Amino acid sequence: MQLSDLQLPAAVGACTYTDAGQLAEALALQVAQALRQAIEQRGSACLLVSGGRSPLAFFQALAQQPLPWARVMISLADERWVAPEHADSNEALVRRNLLQGSAASAQFLGLYQPAASLEAATELADTALAALPPVDVLVLGMGEDGHCASLFPGSPLLALALERDCPRRVLPMQAPVAPTARLSLTLPLLASARLPLLAIQGPAKLATLEQALAGSDALQMPIRALLKAPLQIHWCP
């Protein structure tokens, strides 16, 4: 099965690459061009990214792109509730792999906030995100359970997070197997991106995407809430 075999919603783009390196380079070029255009039109640009192992090559390729990085704000689609120096921190991942060289001059707005409880930390993160400008580019991955960002099937607050008029920018989430508590942006903020991009690799993720496209219940597979134009999907075997 190939990405071209799937019945995608109208105006959803699809690009297939030979390997992960080619995907990372192409994704970096597209993101850089979109950020450059936003800066030309509005004077600044905003990029949201996800963590995990998959985007490392993309981060490193994007850091090499010639951009007026000081005019770019970068934030996260989700984060584990761990300090930035923790090995599982998405913020640490971005700082090590993207905010390097000239890209180090970009502004970074993290989600982690030290607090006495996850709920208190989430409220602080929600307040901090008030400073986030309109989102130009969102780069998401997808788990084999259909989760995106940290919107996991079965998480207690998932229904609220997926409401189109959810009043919160960020909510606490719980992964089904990993014990670490997480914070995730909610659907209204994720769906506001001018250019949403989904990057996936391998046949298992393609099978997950096929399953997601076959149904409509976002509580079962949260990625379904974002499978609509102007989304662009990037995949390699």
What layout of secondary structure does this protein have?
Blueprint: E1 13-16, H1 20-42, E2 45-49, H2 56-63, E3 72-76, E4 78-80, H3 90-97, E5 107-109, H4 118-128, E6 137-140, H5 158-161, E7 170-174, E8 181-185, H6 187-190, E9 195-201, H7 203-213, E10 232-236
Parallel strand pairs: 1-10, 2-3, 2-6, 3-5, 6-9, 9-10
Antiparallel strand pairs: 4-8, 7-8
Helix pairs in contact: 1-2
Beta-strand share of residues: 15-25%
Shape: globular
The largest pleated sheet is described as: 7 strands, parallel
Termini separation:
10 Å
The whole-number mean of residue pLDDT values reads 96
Q: Give the strand order, joined by hyphens, for the main sheet.
A: 1-10-9-6-2-3-5
Report low-confidence residues grouped into runs of 5 or more: none
Polypeptide structure, described:
The protein is α/β, with parallel strands linked by helices and 237 residues long. 29% of the residues lie in helices and 19% in strands. It is built from 7 helices and 10 strands. The protein has helices at residues 20-42, 56-63, 90-97, 118-128, 158-161, 187-190, 203-213; strands spanning 13-16, 45-49, 72-76, 78-80, 107-109, 137-140, 170-174, 181-185, 195-201, 232-236. A 7-stranded parallel β-sheet has the order 1-10-9-6-2-3-5, sandwiched between helices. A 3-stranded antiparallel β-sheet has the order 4-8-7. α7 (203-213) links the parallel β9 and β10. α1 (20-42) crosses α2 (56-63). The longest helix has 23 residues, at 20-42. The protein is globular. The relative contact order is 0.19. The model has no long low-confidence stretch (mean pLDDT 96).
